[in-house]
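step: validate -> pass
step: tokenize input -> pass
step: predict -> running
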Amino acid sequence: MACDSRGTWSSILLDFLKEGMSQLLHASTRLGDEGQRLVVELLLRGFEGPVVQRFALPELVTERKRLLNELFMSSDGFVRVTVGILLAALLTDAEDYGEASQAEAGLAALRQELFR
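step: predict -> pass
step: emit ->
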């Protein structure tokens, strides 16, 4: 479904983020690299407009930080680069993203790692 209709997937993801952020963290933690890949792929496929705004809400800060930190520390390069894309989207598209300085530092570290 995530591949067939991006708009439909974004709508489902938007509803899921109301209550499901902890489930994403659980999947990325318990299922290892495969779970992390699944989580970032599912997020990336619908990470636009309202989904970015919902993901950036202040009331999700604790769960968001835990999830993004978990994924950013992955040993899987694909996961790390995809988190970089998600962070860039948060920086450019989210209104009042509270962790902008941390996201910028993470992107700078990722860039340095990739282009050394």
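step: describe -> The helical segments are 6-16, 21-30, 32-46, 49-55, 61-72, 77-93, 100-114.
step: cleanup -> pass
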